[in-house]
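Final report, closing paragraph on structural work. Over the funding period we assembled a curated collection of sequence-structure pairs, and we close with a single example.
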Amino acid sequence: MASTSCSGYIAVCLPSAIIAPLMMRILAITLNWRQPQLTLECVQALRSLHTHVDILVIDNGSGDNSAEILAAGLAPAELVCLPNNVGFAAGSNHGLRYAIEQGYTYALLLNNDAFPSADMLDQLLAETSDDTALLTPVIYYEAQPNRIWYGGARRHKHTLDLRDRLQNQIDSGQITTHDVDYVLGTCVLVNLAAVAKVGLLDERYFMYFEDLDWSLRFQSAGYRLRLVASAKLYHRVAVSTGGVESPLRRFYLARSSVIFYRVHRDAGTTWIIVLFRIGSAMKTLAKLAWHRQWEAARAYVHGLHNGWIASRQLVSATSVNE
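Its predicted structure, as stored:
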């Protein structure tokens, strides 16, 4: 028989598993950048969740008519408009700060091109604990709802590379709920008490790798990261950056990867990381050249150079502070 909790003098008992979510205040946070209709679609999916969440939409300096479209379609959700595009990390931090200040227990960070199943949040909440900082659902391709996009990531002990052995597999029941090394910012339920101790997303990453950086920092502080097999999310992959091989996406992937691996090199084996990243860069450029995606290739090289300069400054600043 399920454990129960009773309140006052009323002879009514509810299972603890039901009462716990009722006691939590949860804020869903999603960013918009020039995609108001997609964002409204995401908000509608949030409104269909079985568990109630307050919703905060942050327009990340779109500079078009996004604010007007969102204001007309969002009520009663909250809309905040930033004057400039500050990137994913800084934009998300704006929402996380608000959630902490307003006394929320958890924040649900969600890309605007990702859509939760109605019971996703219920399944995530069932796995919460004080020592778990981040919880993530299994993520599927929206266009192929049984094909896995993210099924739990391990970290290679020498290269720090993300290893997801289930990616692109068809879900046949092989996924289990378990602790992981990396969670992705596509969708993550955030324990705000843990954030108060470890800190917000690192805003030096404009876009990409801020989630891997956060994962490492939480684990270093002794927190767990957890994949919940029964929680499901459907991702319209890379829509927010113009496609998988768009120059914008290639630039920021390259830039942020250099920063991440240089800042965290001591968590792996430095010389192996250097060789692995050089090989990875050559492989990526060869692929882009083979498909004659010259603009994306140029953006990728520019991103590598920009990331190297930025990471040198970060490492120098860290050395001075120490």
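The first strand starts at residue 4 and ends at 6. Residues 1-20, 317-322 have pLDDT under 50 and may be disordered. We thank the funder for supporting this effort.
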